[in-house]
Amino acid sequence: MAERALQQIISQLKSHPNAPYNEASKLLSKAKIALLQLKVVTPSPSTPPSHLALATELYEAGALFSIRAKNAEAFTRYVSQLQPFYELADDAGSGSSSAEENRNKVTGLYLLLLLTQGRYAEFHSELEALSTRARGSEEIERDRYLGYPIKLERWLMEGSYDRVWKAMKSREVPSEEYGVFSEILTSQIRSEIASSSERAYPSLPISSTKSLLFLDSEGAVVDFARHRGWIIRDGQIFFPAAEGAEDGGDEKEISQMVIENALGYARELETIV
Amino acid sequence: MPGKTPRSNSNEPVENGVRNNKDVDMTDEKSSMKGKGKKSVKEGEDMTVVVPPSKSTKQSSQPPAADAEGDIAMDDTDKDQELEVKVDPVTQAITDIKSNFALLDRAVALFDSRFTLRALRSISSLRKRLTPEILSQVIAETFSPASASAAVAKQLLAAIGKGDVLLGRQSNSDMEIDSDSKTPKNGSKKENKDTIPEIDIFLAILIQVYLFDSKQFQSGAEFSKSLVDRIHTLNRRTLDSLSAKVYFYYELFCEQLAPLPPSPRSPIVAIRPTLLTALRTAVLRKDIDTQAAVIVLLLRNHLLTSHISQADLLVSHTQFPENAANTQVARFLYYLGRIRAIQLRYTEAHEHLTAATRKSPASNCALGFAQTATKLLLVVELLMGDIPERATFRASNMEQALRPYFLLVQAVRVGNLEDFETTIAEHADTFRRDGTYSLILRLRQNVIKTGIRMMSLSYSRISLRDICIRLHLGSEESAEYIVAKAIRDGVIEATLDREHGFMKSKEVGDVYATREPGEAFHDRIRACLGLHDESVKAMRFPMNQHRLELKNAQEAREREREMAKEIQDGDLDDDDLGGDFEGM
């Protein structure tokens, strides 16, 4: 009974990928009740494989819906629910290519989410887990869904922001769900560029800043500059000097530190001798 | 004992000639035992000699007495069975195993784990000589069938496939006499003395070692499981270091079983609850040895299946005991360093790994650990932007193993992306086996940074196009962003000119004008002071010595009081007094 209902809901969800989130979530909660009846909310080795596949599909659909609705929390929840299913699937060693593809899609999205939220530690932990999965890591990089966030991370780390930009704009984006992150990524790299420019350039002409920051117009540049507190003069952007006044205080601090240290040594020596 | 020899003589008159011969052997054996006793024990010279029952009612002298008896009886067996062999390796092994029992007994009696540790240390020398025959013989001779631990002994025997061996067998022919001679002696004591659990766990560990070396992983895992259950029911502080060892082998067995580790169905996942329970119990009992060992095992367990976040949670929720054994600390630091390296917390990782490599034993017995830790340390150093010292690669026992890493370091040092990529491609398998591959892939950005730094140092002004060509970067724009990022991250001191497209290096300031040297100095002094503190903590003082001092002090004080009294009475001159005080 529950099984058939579940199948129906899944096919319904799949046929309307653009259904509004409210409707989808109603269907999803109905499906979750069905899962409860089948006792596959959390998998165990004794669960029949057909139920496992159904549950996995449902959770994946849920994950995709929540990412389309930009609901990061719900997405993370779905991903963690999927984790034990994936581990069981790993075990069985089976898994059709379509299941594999879905899995990579969700995992790739999760990686991207971690990346945009700046949770690099978790990103790399996840990556480590991926590379110990049966396949070699080159294959992971070549995978359409998994390779994308990995490449982005590498470029972000080395600072090739233009490549990130190009990758986001071009056809390289593996699927529409990945587009959700483009906006966040754009603002992220923009602020990265801005903070490095503050240190790297003495001044910048507005016209070239436009292309540097991937902004559309000079007006947008001016807005952005105001937002960051930059000074605009004669078509040039000057960056307010952050330090300079600190030197005096620094000097004082150093001598204080030296005195403190020396006193500390004296005390320690006394306890030894 | 005196009653025994003549009797057995009368039983086997035929072999008399040989017997005399052997008797010499036997005494040799005995004297050597005695020598050992002297070494390890101060007051117990009469330990190996059979003690009259009245004396042996108290603690430690009792079981060794039984040991000596067993030894002699055992010699008798040998005499019967192997007439020709003079120093039999089997006998030797059995004696060696048994000599550890004395240590365990002392550990229990004096409540000092040092003796247990000494017994455990002998495992490595016993390891190669273990056979089911030797083990079964030792077990049979150690346990008497009447004692409460007979069931345990049966289990031990079953584990090595010798379930049919009878317990309490002293020797085949001497059976009767033995029981005869025993009754008068033991009768005066309350009962047949029970074998202490430490001894049977020790034997069980030997069996684990044997099963592991003979690759009987399945039966080893099952045996370990029952052993762990048994340990859990015993609450004895003197068992702590032994049980730590038991868990260690349990984990090792499970790692070798069918679905090998990376698979989530591997048995190591299934034993996590057991280990966690063990950890909880250990913490509650303040059982430091087990606690440390189990934490390390759990970390290893999680890392094998790449459950890094779980491992991290484990670390944050447990507290590693401060005064754990050095080996466990080294392992713990290594695993911790590994977790931190994966999480990009390189500074911490570096700290932990450095400590791990320093704490690893200097001798060649743990070379594998030292190598693995060093490999990881090298990669982390590279990731931090440091270049490891050349001397690391020259050490004779490391050179071979570190070769791929040496090439890698060279590529990073020069900042040559091409070399770097070819090195990775060539040694990918090695790196993957070492578990450093994904970390090494992260090095790409460091190579670029090093390249930029080299260029900034050598040119006061260089165009972005040149940078792009030298470093094999994709485009000039990329180069610009990368250089800007490098400037922000403090890799180089320079400015960019966007209109003309070049990078201008700033004059390098005087390092000695900054606080850097002071900080480095401070760090070193702190390290030295820390070392001093730790060595003071590690010092051992004889037990109860302070009481003696207290007594002395008390006496001195009394004398002083007397003197004061005398002064009051006016009996003493000032001169006398001064002299006296100096004397004190």
From TrEMBL, chain A:
<dbReference type="Pfam" id="PF10075">
    <property type="entry name" value="CSN8_PSD8_EIF3K"/>
</dbReference>
<dbReference type="GO" id="GO:0005829">
    <property type="term" value="C:cytosol"/>
</dbReference>
<dbReference type="InterPro" id="IPR000717">
    <property type="entry name" value="PCI_dom"/>
</dbReference>
<dbReference type="GO" id="GO:0005634">
    <property type="term" value="C:nucleus"/>
</dbReference>
<dbReference type="InterPro" id="IPR033464">
    <property type="entry name" value="CSN8_PSD8_EIF3K"/>
</dbReference>
<dbReference type="InterPro" id="IPR006746">
    <property type="entry name" value="26S_Psome_Rpn12"/>
</dbReference>
<keyword id="KW-0647">Proteasome</keyword>
<dbReference type="GO" id="GO:0008541">
    <property type="term" value="C:proteasome regulatory particle, lid subcomplex"/>
</dbReference>
<comment type="similarity">
    <text>Belongs to the proteasome subunit S14 family.</text>
</comment>
<feature type="domain" description="PCI">
    <location>
        <begin position="70"/>
        <end position="255"/>
    </location>
</feature>
<protein>
    <recommendedName>
        <fullName>PCI domain-containing protein</fullName>
    </recommendedName>
</protein>
<dbReference type="GO" id="GO:0043161">
    <property type="term" value="P:proteasome-mediated ubiquitin-dependent protein catabolic process"/>
</dbReference>
UniProtKB/TrEMBL annotation, chain B:
<feature type="compositionally biased region" description="Low complexity">
    <location>
        <begin position="52"/>
        <end position="64"/>
    </location>
</feature>
<dbReference type="InterPro" id="IPR000717">
    <property type="entry name" value="PCI_dom"/>
</dbReference>
<dbReference type="Pfam" id="PF08375">
    <property type="entry name" value="Rpn3_C"/>
</dbReference>
<dbReference type="Pfam" id="PF25573">
    <property type="entry name" value="TPR_PSMD3_N"/>
</dbReference>
<dbReference type="InterPro" id="IPR036390">
    <property type="entry name" value="WH_DNA-bd_sf"/>
</dbReference>
<feature type="domain" description="PCI">
    <location>
        <begin position="330"/>
        <end position="510"/>
    </location>
</feature>
<feature type="compositionally biased region" description="Basic and acidic residues">
    <location>
        <begin position="554"/>
        <end position="568"/>
    </location>
</feature>
<feature type="compositionally biased region" description="Polar residues">
    <location>
        <begin position="1"/>
        <end position="13"/>
    </location>
</feature>
<keyword id="KW-0647">Proteasome</keyword>
<dbReference type="Pfam" id="PF01399">
    <property type="entry name" value="PCI"/>
</dbReference>
<dbReference type="GO" id="GO:0008541">
    <property type="term" value="C:proteasome regulatory particle, lid subcomplex"/>
</dbReference>
<feature type="region of interest" description="Disordered">
    <location>
        <begin position="1"/>
        <end position="72"/>
    </location>
</feature>
<dbReference type="InterPro" id="IPR013586">
    <property type="entry name" value="PSMD3_C"/>
</dbReference>
<feature type="region of interest" description="Disordered">
    <location>
        <begin position="173"/>
        <end position="192"/>
    </location>
</feature>
<feature type="compositionally biased region" description="Basic and acidic residues">
    <location>
        <begin position="20"/>
        <end position="32"/>
    </location>
</feature>
<feature type="compositionally biased region" description="Acidic residues">
    <location>
        <begin position="569"/>
        <end position="584"/>
    </location>
</feature>
<protein>
    <recommendedName>
        <fullName>PCI domain-containing protein</fullName>
    </recommendedName>
</protein>
<dbReference type="InterPro" id="IPR057985">
    <property type="entry name" value="TPR_PSMD3_N"/>
</dbReference>
<comment type="similarity">
    <text>Belongs to the proteasome subunit S3 family.</text>
</comment>
<dbReference type="GO" id="GO:0006511">
    <property type="term" value="P:ubiquitin-dependent protein catabolic process"/>
</dbReference>
<feature type="region of interest" description="Disordered">
    <location>
        <begin position="554"/>
        <end position="584"/>
    </location>
</feature>
<dbReference type="GO" id="GO:0042176">
    <property type="term" value="P:regulation of protein catabolic process"/>
</dbReference>
